Structure formats: structure tokens, C-alpha cells
Amino acid sequence: MRGIVxxxxxxxxxxxxxxxxxxxxxxxxxxxxxDRPAGETDGPKVVVLMxxxxxxxxxxxxFGRSGTDADKLFKDLSARITARGVSTLRYxxxxxxxxxxxxxxxxxxxxxxxxxxxDVADLYAWARSRDGLGARCAILFGHSExxxxxxxxxxxxxxxxxxxxGMGALLESPQSVMRWQLVGRNVDAVRAMDADRDGRTSNxxxxxxxxxxxGAAMLPVGAFIHPNGGWGASEIAAYEAAAATGYEAMRTxxxxxAPTDPxxxxxxxxxxxxxxxxxxxxxxxxxxxxxxWRVPVRIHYGDRDSQTDAKRQVxxxxxxxxxxFTWTIHEGAGHGLGDHITVGPMKPEIAHAIAxxxxxxxxxxx
Length: 366
What we know:
Blueprint lengths: L15 E8 L5 E8 L9 E6 L21 H10 L4 E5 L13 H4 L4 H16 L8 E7 L2 H10 L7 E5 L6 H19 L8 E2 H7 L20 E2 L1 H23 L6 E2 L7 E2 H9 L4 H5 L6 E6 L7 H12 L3 E6 L17 H15 L4
Parallel strand pairs: 3-4, 3-5, 5-6, 6-11, 11-12
Antiparallel strand pairs: 1-2, 2-4, 7-8, 9-10
Helix pairs in contact: 1-11, 3-4, 5-7, 5-8
């Protein structure tokens, strides 16, 4: 499955939503819910464990700017998956509240890469356990950083799932993607705004192309207006060198923090510095971690993704996973697989394609 996938939107509501509370290995209680398709009364044959990316996400994963329920990416996608006869398991990230249950700042700032990995592993084990959900097979679904946690679960020796499916998912190393975001992203943005492909991006081309450029992820248009009237090879090289120097200084400053310090600071912290600094130190490709499992890996990307560059992820996936890896790059879509470069809501035809992929993968459960 390569190229652009188009399809019709399918809107549906889960026939049954079952709240669950699962005790993790350290005693913390993880909250979430199982969405079941119509007619399912016993343990599901297949369940999809949905793992969110970076942020303070609850089970719905609100990651959009429309102000509608379509911004709840996982809730919307779960409805589409259950409409195809497959159950889902969604959860609130450790420390994140839901409904009337408030978030717990003390729990949030204690989160580490190990606790995030272990929570996914414990949910996965519960989903398959006879004392838990009792699913015969499981599919692991990850958005963005969610795939990093899934990869670490694989690396830790967890049993193989039926398949791994994702959207905007990291397959290169966390260190590599962070360096791209801080150094390479703006360079790539400048080159992409060269509309006439003459090797020089004029300031006028910047003004025209900036709104839909991945450069808009962090900086205003003025940051891309060059005093020389545009960007040629020498201007781009100078910028890249300066950005690389800034990256190294930033890396040094962050790594000087104690791992247990709250990130970004105590009052509004939502993780530990151990987690944040892993983005500067973890150089193992996520795809190499996933390669421990000999299962299909199917990922959907947008060609305007401001967080995980599709071409870089595809290259990492092909190198480590070979023919087990299949992908789709959707034209005009960003990190949330919508029109925006970063957030959703997801385009309905892409949500349809992902749900169809999940349903197809589920047919392999025996």
C-alpha cells in the first residue's frame, strides 16, 4: 500500500463504551475505556490499543482546532474502527484527568520513558489476559511519539501483536527527529517554498508559501524574510550552521538538568526532564525496536507533517523493517492528518482509510 489513498467517510458511534480501571505494575491505576462494536458481548476477538503522542492527552486525544468533536482524534477513529467490527482500548495518559477526575500534577511530572513504556505494556497485557479483556489478538496503534513507546515495548520482549498501525508515527530515533525539528525543519521549509524551483527562495515566495509551510510550526513569517531578499545556497548553509550551534548549546543546557526535575518547570510541568532529555540522547531508531516483532507495520503520513517528516520516517521504516513495512503519504495533510500542518481534525477520507487498514489487519486473527 503506497501512494495516496482516497475513500468515503464513515461516521459511526460505538455501540458500547465500557469504562475500565487497570492497575499498573507500580500500583498506579490507569483509566480508560473499551469501545465495542454492535453485538459484541463476550471478550473481543481483536482489540486495538490506541497509544497517544506527546502531550497531556486523555483517551479522546483532543488535537484539533475546529471546536467540534472531530478534534477528538482517537474518539472519532475508534468509532470508525468499531463500525468495522473491531474493539478498541483507549486510555488517559498517567496523571491526566478525564470527565470529573482532575489531572494530578505530581504524577505528571514524575513520568519517565520507562513509566510510559510500562503503562503501554501493562495495558497490552491486560487486553490479552483472561483476567482482563481476554482478546484473542491485539493491534497496537500509535500516533507520533506513541510509536516510540510501542517500539520500547517491543524491545523489552513483549509478545508479538497481530500488527502495528500508526499515523504520523516516529520511526527514526528520538534524537534524530529532535535535531531535525530544531535544525533541519526550517531549512526544509525554505527549500520547499522555492515555488519556481530555481534554487533560490525569494522573500516573495516566502510570503506566498509560508501559511502552508512546515516552517509555520514554531516561527512567524518574519523569521523567514531574509535581508538579502531571499535564500540561496550560501544563506541556507549559514542558517543551518548557526542552527546546529544553537542546537548543541540547547542540548548541553538541558542535559545539565537533574532527571527528576519537572519539565518544563514546576508550576506547569507535565513530565520529568528524564523524558525530555531522551529526545537528545536516544539514538536508536524506533523502527529498529519494532523489528523485534515479525509483524506487519502500516503507517499513514501527511506530506506536510511539521513534526515527523514523512520521507525520513519511511526511509527508517524501510531500512529496519523491509517488506513488513507499508505506508501511505497523504497529499495536503499534516501531523494530525488534517489540513493544518500540525493539528486536526483528521480528513474524513484519511480516517476512513486508517480504519479500513485496521479492519484488514484484524482478519489475520485466528
